[in-house]
Amino acid sequence: MRFMWQFLKRQHRYVFISVIGTLGKVLVMMGLPTLLGVMIDTALIPGDFERAVTIGWWMLGLALIGLVGRVVSTYGSAHATAKMTEDIRNEVYGRMVQFSHDEYKEFGVPSLTTRISTDAFVLMQFAEQLLRMGLMAPLMILASIVFMFSVSPNLSIVLVPSLFLMSGIIYFLAKFSHPISEKQQKNLDRINGIFRENINGNRVIRSFTQEESRFVRFNQVNDAYKNNSLKLFRTLGLADPAFTFIIVSMIVVIVILGSRQIELGNMQVGVLTAFIEYSFHALFSLLIMAQLFIMYPRATVSANRLEEIMKVMPSIDENEDGVVETPIKGEVEFQNVYFQYSDADEPVLKNISFKAQKGQTVAFIGSTGSGKSTVVQLIPRLYDVTSGRILVDGVDVRDYNLKALREKVGYTPQKSLLFSGTIADNLRFGKEAAEEADFDHATSISQAYDFIQRLENTYGSKLVEGGTNFSGGQRQRLAIARTVIDQPEIYIFDDSFSALDFKTDAKVRGLLSKETTESLTFIVAQRVSSIINADQIIVLDEGEIAAMGTHKELLETSELYQEIARSQLSEEELYG
User: Fold this and answer.
1) What HEC string does 268-322 produce?
2) β pairing state of 536-541 and 361-366
3) Partner of 468 at 20 to 30 A CA spacing, among 124, 135, 279, 503?
4) Dihedrals φ, ψ of 354, to 5°?
5) pLDDT computed for residue 33 by the predictor
6) What whole-number distance in Å separates Cα of residue 305 and Cα of residue 112?
7) Do the beta carbons of residue 497 and residue 446 sit within 8 Å?
8) Domains 319-408+489-576 and 417-487 equal at CATH topology level
9) What is the per-residue pLDDT for 218?
10) Across 196-200, average pLDDT
């Protein structure tokens, strides 16, 4: 739980306010039983009614102090825990956005989502209860025991077995519930994962009429979560009846023994009343501590899961002291590059070597799984090479300040991911200070200008999450415009024209060739028509360079390229 404490102690001002309020509550709750006992005994004496009324006013004053104490305690604990949770989420999110693809694969998106939402909320609940009750309960127990022994040492012995019994139950519950809480959080990860998968793949599920099978799968995971939760709740459900039985039994014994003491003249009624109140406070405070101990295992699991994220050092570091500026612009060189995914058995890329200059268009083509996308993702360090070197403008990418490196690169991924907001918001991902003239220029190149102008709010038009209120081709054109708007040194289009029709594809490529004359352009493509005019085409086969050259050169030298090209183009298109 050190993880939670390091965030909670930052809110020391609010914690202090909560502690002051708690001390006020304890003072009042300890003083009221004594005054009540004195008032009862005074009221029983004829002619002492006025004194009883005076004591009553004192009790009312204490009650008002207690009210203020509760308000202050609640205010302090609420602010401390809310701000603590905000800090936790901010720092966990800050670490998550530094992760490379490997770390995201290791944790899984559903698990990360659960941790930053549910686990952080669990810690907030526990911290809030800890501040409100965690200090008050032990103080109440100690103070109550002291007052009980001062009132009647003989009757106080009744409390000892009750304390031992309740402490034993608390220990058992805390020990037993910890592994169940771990399973419960993991099951919640699985529920989130399947739910997210089903929502994202809803169209595919419907098209294959797999609604029932997917429901069965979700129901199985949900049922496992339910069974685990029931096991936890049944165990914890024993606490209340057990504690209630112990408290009631103890009070009954105290009343019986106390009544005997009153009958013998060794105790007054008011003293017995005060003693019962103190005993109730002691055991009820122990019950409150039991609830905290019951919450503790789940809070520990949640804290460990969040701390696990914070302990992971991103495999791709920011390198804040790295290279920022270079005299050379728009040059990329691969030197004997090998790359292997962390969970793979063999390298995806083997001995990749080539050099590209400013003004060139370099294209990658090959069968599915040949490593085309992986090659271009190594340039902005979305992954790091396993061996070999990648030089951008003559400097190893690992020696760059990461932000400076990525500012050199404009990357359009395979999936045209857009974010909720307006079209303008999404275009400004590429250039934060972009104005309408910049929007017009970029969207004209990507052939998105016409359909945007037909929209009622043009660049102010809203996109839902993922931009799914636009067609695949429209999303792809917006993603291309987002890359073009910043005019980077290096353009990367990772199969970014696949959703465009041939006519639009040709227009976009023609305009891009004019726009990128002072930049280096990489294109990953499935269509030969998209790369036919590239200055250099690299044919990949099972992670290795099978051939390299222009379209005409490859038609003469590469059987693999000929096979791909002839499957897509007519003889006239091939040699035209």
Assistant:
1) CHHHHHHHHHHHHHHHHHHHHHHHHHHHHHHHHHHHHHHHHHHHCCCCCCCCCCC
2) parallel
3) 503
4) -170, 165
5) 62
6) 9
7) no
8) yes
9) 84
10) 76
Q: How far apart are CA 380 and CA 314, in angstroms?
A: 15
CA 536 to chain centre: 43
Domain ranges of the chain: 2-311, 319-408+489-576, 417-487
Closest to 3 in 3D by CA, of 91, 80, 104: 91
Instruction: In whole angstroms, give the CA distance from residue 331 to residue 401.
Output: 17
Joined together, the tokens standing for residue 89 give 């989420």
**Three-state secondary structure call for residue 395:** strand
**3-state helix vs strand vs coil in the chain, percent to 5:** 65, 10, 25
b (16+ CB within 10 A) / e for 27-66: bbbbbbbbbbbbbbbbbeeeeeeeebeebeeebeebeeeb
Sign of CA dihedral 411, 416, 418, 422: positive
92 Cβ contact list (under 8 Å, min separation 6): 115, 116, 120, 306, 309, 310
Q: Which residue has the tokens 């809480």?
A: 181
Reply yes or no on whether the pLDDT at 32 is more than 70.
Answer: no
The two tokens of residue 291 are 């609830």
CATH says 319-408+489-576 is which class? alpha beta
pLDDT, one tens digit per residue, over 117-147 is 888 998 998 998 888 888 888 888 887 788 7
Among 289, 292, 21, smallest CA distance to 140 is for: 289
State mean pLDDT over 511-540. Answer: 88
3-state secondary structure 398-457: HHECHHHHHHCEEEECCCCCCCCEEHHHHHCCCCCCCCHHHHHHHHHHCCCHHHHHCCCC
Q: How far apart are CA 76 and CA 79, in angstroms?
A: 5
Amino acid at 253: V
To the question of pTM greater than 0.85 for the whole model, the response is no
Coil, strand or helix: which one is 91? helix
Q: Encoding tokens for residue 368? A: 């599915």
- In this structure, what token pair is assigned to residue 315? 């495999």
Question: Could you give the CA distance from residue 258 to residue 275 in angstroms, rounded to a whole number?
Answer: 9
CATH of 2-311, one of 3.30.559.10, 2.130.10.10, 2.30.30.230, 1.20.1560.10: 1.20.1560.10
Contact of 548 with 353, CB cutoff 8 Å: no
Which one of 25-29, 430-434, 553-557 scores highest in mean pLDDT?
553-557
Average pLDDT over residues 170-179: 76
Fold topology of 417-487:
Rossmann fold (3.40.50)
| 8 Å CB contact between 228 and 180 | yes
β-sheet bridge partners, residue 339: 349
Give the mean pLDDT of the chain.
Answer: 83
Tell me how far apart the alpha carbons of residues 128 and 24 are, in angstroms, rounded to a whole number. 18
Q: Where are the beta strands (DSSP E) in 325-379?
A: 332-339, 349-356, 361-366
pLDDT tens-digit map of 352-365: 999 999 989 999 99
Q: What does residue 172 show for φ and ψ, rounded to 5 degrees?
A: -60, -45
